[in-house]
Design brief:
There is one protein chain. By secondary structure, the protein is α+β, with helices and mostly antiparallel strands. It is built from 2 helices and 6 strands. It has a domain of 84 residues: 3-Layer(aba) Sandwich (Protein Transport Mog1p, Chain A), CATH 3.40.1000.10. A 6-stranded antiparallel β-sheet has the order 1-2-6-5-4-3, covered by helices on one side.
Length: 190
Amino acid sequence: MSRRVMILTALAVGVLPFSSCTCRTATPEAPVSTAERRGGFGAVVTPRKLPERVAEAVTPHELPPASPPPLPTKAATPEQGSIPDNFPEGIPVPDGSKVMAVQSLANDAHNVIFALDGEAPEVFGLYKNTMENSGWGKPTQEYQGKEQSFLSFKKGDTITNISVTKDPKTGRRIVAVMYYDEQPLPFPEF
């Protein structure tokens, strides 16, 4: 008897999904295509209907006469001239180099750009050896390529990044010395 009950239960459960079938209702007709589809490039771009023009007259607003913005009295950055007073000690200034610009950056950082004659390996070696021997220690980052190189040093809280590259117009070496004092983070480290 339990076998019959199990078979009838399985049969009832199997037929149950078919009892809610909506096959007897008619399906709606597919919409008629109103636009002809293009093939090839731009096939997915749908044609747009241009907006209709408003029949009302549009009156232009009176604009105030244009006045040029006031000129600054002194540019904040870059400045040509000499090495700043707070330039870190132990960073060499090569003989014959010319200060091209001094830039003040965010977070009280500074960038001094020099132009000088010399080959990239010589200039790279000058900065690396001089700074190692003047208390900066080994570079924290170092890259030396054929025409570009980069050094990064840390001494106390002062971080210095030096990049050496070549000016394509003049062929002279361009040395950018960026330095700043590391500040504590405004949030706890994780």
